[in-house]
Specification:
This protein is α/β, with parallel strands linked by helices and 447 residues long. The chain folds into two domains: 8-348, Alkaline Phosphatase, subunit A (3-Layer(aba) Sandwich), CATH 3.40.720; 363-444, Arylsulfatase, C-terminal domain (2-Layer Sandwich). The protein has eleven helices and 17 strands. It has helices at 33-40, 55-64, 68-71, 88-94, 152-164, 216-219, 234-261, 293-296, 323-330, 345-348, 427-444, and strands spanning 8-14, 43-44, 48-49, 98-104, 118-122, 131-135, 146-148, 173-178, 268-274, 279-280, 286-287, 300-303, 318-319, 363-368, 381-386, 389-394, 404-409. It has a nine-stranded mixed beta sheet, with helices on both faces. Helix 5 packs parallel to helix 7 (234-261). The longest helix is centred in the middle third of the chain and has 28 residues, at 234-261.
């Protein structure tokens, strides 16, 4: 029986990159020609979201196809992957792939307790300069952390390309390249220290919005500008954020060129996304965690000419539990029905994937668990988003005040300025959204 030739897989992920900080997304000055190319020659999703806007949970979700409550990594404070969970890279390895992981994992164990054919990763947040990174040894074990000179994402990309270019005959490879940038504190590569120096920085439309009507759980969080030294100068902060993203774009270009040089680009499925989004001045706040749009909306780009027609801009709501099923389907493999997501190939592939025939989702569930945390002080909350409404429930507040709610009509109020949750004329919608939220919790085992 002839063996099916499977495509190579390259998955790249940034840290804290907003979906609107790419030149193809209409940003007024940032230049990201290589990210733009992936979307132009494939699919660029308009409504991609994360289900827990936090670093470690998002990475665990990408690799497992499971919500945080199911995979065990619910926060950045040390929660661990549950034993025996689905691990999408294992499925690839079981089906003939050589699998490499390079970069940031952030979860306890740093993915070093998982099986990879190649590993080159760092602990925690790592550092932009003078990085310490561990590499797998020929016997499959992980060597000690060693110092490396240069900018972190340049270093890890060089090692990723070296591994990708190995001669492995007809065996396909899957590379997970998870960048550090543009996580704060922002330290761009030396070549871009003055890039965008003359760019005009405009504060977002919500900068002067006081958040009146928003619950105390939102207003009391420790994420106001000026609380940390690197957030005091807004203009320079934005420039450094953009400089870091452009540094990543250089490395995306290196990966694409390496594939082209080996005549592998069109037989490789390339995916690009971020672990979460980031407030950059909305309500004069920074960071992520909350369920508001500046925190949850991320880029999602997919290029694979053999199955994905160029120029697609799907508008359906995609979420990060969809990534693992999508990777498996792009590899020509079915995904376990115990995964919480659905393959995005249902929306972009030609011919369409046939794993599901039901209509695409009209609502999705969000969860945030990291409290108490004195660094950010964001209360636990859960919520549901539809195409029109978003409902947020702060369900476990400090004993000094009661549970709180937010409701937004995203069609009438896309910037989420007006909280409708307490208004009498919207109580029927509140009741319906509460019911939808509880239904999703039951469906996902999040009760």
């Amino acid at each position: 029986m002839e063996t099916v030739k499977r495509p190579n897989i390259v998955v790249m992920m940034t840290d804290d990159q907003r979906a609107d900080f790419m030149s193809a997304a209409g940003h007024p000055f940032i230049k990201t020609p290589n990210m733009d190319r992936i979307g132009k020659e494939g699919a660029a999703f308009k409504n991609m979201f994360v289900t827990n806007a936090l670093c470690a949970p998002s990475r665990a979700t990408l690799m497992s196809g499971l919500y945080s409550h199911a995979n065990g990594v619910t926060d950045n404070m040390g929660t661990k992957l549950k034993a025996g969970i689905i691990w999408m890279p294992d499925i690839l390895r079981e089906n003939g792939y050589e699998v490499g992981f390079v970069g940031k994992s952030h979860v306890p164990g740093h993915f070093r307790d998982q099986k990879f054919d190649y590993y080159f990763g760092f602990t925690g947040q790592g550092t932009y300069q003078n990085a310490r990174i561990a590499e797998s040894l020929p016997d499959g074990t992980i060597g000690p952390d060693k110092p490396y000179d240069g900018w972190m994402d340049d270093i890890i990309t060089e090692r990723a390309i070296t591994w990708m270019n190995r001669d492995r005959g007809t065996k396909p490879f899957a590379l997970f390249l998870f960048f550090k940038a543009p996580h704060r504190q922002w330290n761009p590569p030396a070549r871009y220290k003055t890039l965008y120096a003359d760019a005009v920085i405009k504060k977002p439309a919500l900068w002067d919005d006081t958040g009146a009507g928003k619950p105390r759980a939102f207003l009391q969080a420790a994420n106001m500008f000026g609380q940390y030294p690197d957030t005091k100068n807004y203009d320079e902060m934005i420039r450094d954020y953009c400089r870091c993203i452009t540094g990543v774009d250089d490395n995306v270009g290196k990966v694409l060129k390496a594939l082209e040089d080996k005549q592998r680009l069109d037989e490789t499925a390339v995916m690009y996304t971020s672990d979460n989004c980031f407030f950059l001045g909305e309500w004069q706040r920074f960071d992520k965690r909350f369920m508001h749009e500046p925190s949850i909306r991320v880029p999602m780009l997919v290029r694979f000419p053999k199955a994905v027609k160029a120029g697609q801009t799907p508008t359906e709501m995609a979420i990060n539990v969809d990534i693992a099923p999508t990777i498996l389907n792009l590899a020509g493999l079915p995904y376990p029905n115990t995964m919480h997501g659905r393959s995005l190939t249902e929306l972009i592939a030609t011919p369409k994937a046939t794993d599901n025939v039901k209509p695409w989702r009209d609502a999705w569930y969000y969860e945030y668990h990291e409290f108490p945390d004195p660094s950010h002080n964001v209360n636990k909350h859960r919520g549901v988003r539809t195409n029109q409404y978003k409902f947020i429930h702060y369900y476990e507040p400090p004993f000094t005040y009661r549970e709180e709610f937010e409701l937004y009509d995203l069609k009438a109020d896309p910037e989420e300025r007006t909280n409708l949750a307490a208004l009498p004329k919207h109580q029927a919608i509140v009741i319906a959204m509460k019911a939808k939220l509880e239904g999703l919790r039951n469906e996902l085992g999040a009760k």
